[in-house]
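Continuing the batch. This is chain 6 of the set; chains 1 through 5 are on the previous pages. Same settings as before, nothing changed between runs. Recording input and output for traceability.
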Amino acid sequence: MKNSMIRAGVVVTMLALIFFVAPRDAAQPRMQAAAPRDTSTIYLPSVTQSPPVVPPPDEAATRITVPNGFAIRIFASNLSTPRFMTFGPDGFLYVSLMSAGQIARLPDRDANGLADGVQVIASGLNAPHGVEWNDGWLYVAAQDRIERFRDADGDGAFESREIVTTNLPCCGGHSSRTLHFGPDGKLYVSAGSTANIAPESDPRRAAILRFNPDGTIPADNPFASDPDSRKQAVWAEGLRNSVDFVFTANGALWANHNGSDGLGDDVPPEEIVIDVQRGRSHGWPYCYTPTLGANLSPTQNAEVRDPRVALPSGFDCAQVVPALFTDRAHSAPLGMSRVSGANFPAAYQNDLFVAYHGSWNTNDPANYRDCKVQRVIVQNGSPTSSETFATGWRAPGAKCGDASTWGRPADVIFGPDGVMYISDDKGGRVYRVVYVGQ
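Output for chain 6:
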């Protein structure tokens, strides 16, 4: 097994001189000059499959609906709360198993569209969530720290494990931590709030943080000289729970945002795309974007005040950054990803896909929010509309958190061959969606 993996590694190295497909966030930055991107993540393009293989129909094919021309199948099952995913330099899928405190690899060595098994490559983590490769290391965002893992000799075992930073807020409230490397080579980490609607005492909560890859504070962080050492890591604030974020082709940082509860079934709208600005507030807990759908004039359509929270002295909702695109309250956006690879049709190539976890706390059955994958259509660099892409996890008349519900999407990413993968943290599955043609 080890010799075959070494031989495979030699092939990958040789082909890497010919083929290179950048990871999903490999865009040029808007905020500062770009550092070289990670070139350790080498993917083999799908040169032998057109379209990629689709296994025989399974239960997903009968339960989940996708648009005409697409096929959905179960890629892996019996997983312990699978959340966020990434593809490694070996071309295999890696996923965080949040409740088990593990990171697992799901190889598909025979390229038949089904995982060969579940290989745990890291354990003993505190609610691991975000995972991403950089410079040969697998970075993992746990609730209380960032760690990184490395398989230096290529034998499949991750013998190197290092703490990158413990400069994260821990425990209570929203526990997921998500990380991505930006086009500037810096490590961005989101951390949610402790409360539904209350100012935070720790500035690292309800924020996106920014570090050097070794966990130190970049000198150009907006609060790098702040006397409160906790605030030095903050890149942007006022983000109640930005479970995920992406970088666009022009270097913009787009984050989603789970709004507060208690204002009703329809307020505040869920902020699906926020154009995150360096050093700025994005509203929470004081303000929210009131419009539904595309906000094509964010400089004119200011956020409005949440009447439950007193404004700080000198603070006004006109000062905060409103969302670019919203959806119905309590949709619970989690993982999001831009289309990459050549499998999806050209009409999809600029779009954003978001995993909606769905509501558990709406009161009127007619207003229950669906657990689904939503397509956000992007035109001329702006989100303009959205439509359901994959649905069918929720039982009729049930909430997404009910026992009768089959699953809840948590993350959506694209593989090196352009195929979509969806994690389901309730059903313990990962799905694979392939475009097969009309």
